[in-house]
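Exercise 3.2. Students should predict the tertiary structure of the chain below and write it as structure tokens, then compare their answer with the key that follows.

Predict this chain's 3D structure.
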Amino acid sequence: MAAKIFGPRKRRTRQHVIADQSVNHVERYIIDAGHTAQRVEKHYGYDLLPFTYDEEGYSEPDFLSLQLKAAESLPTRGLAYNCDVDIRDYNLWMQERMPVILILFDAPKDGLFGLLSRRISRKNRAAGQGRARKRCACVCPGTRW
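Answer key:
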């Protein structure tokens, strides 16, 4: 048994656990499909970079970027899920040549829901310009992957 340590320390929270679960969940989908995924350790709007291969196992050009959001419960609007995204991430995604996929992970349901960055509301694009806005709203279809 470890000795009791006094004083402030860093603590692994439930949010840390479900964030790791979301990355692991998505990695399994990618690997099971015959592809590879690279975790982005020091990310600025990206969590995973999947690399794809053709039927003969040759690397394919270009790659997508994935951003994951994990939660104990996802707010819903009808049959869709809502989440907020940092406006700086959104602005970066809109400049990417390839789409960024935002993936929501519902921890209790062990479910994934995705949305291409190009389909995020155009209102966010206009709202992010000029004003000091920090977040933008995203709505993901309720179709589970």
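Discussion points: Residues 14-141 form a domain with the Trna Endonuclease; Chain: A, domain 1 fold (CATH 3.40.1350.10). The chain has a mean pLDDT of 81.
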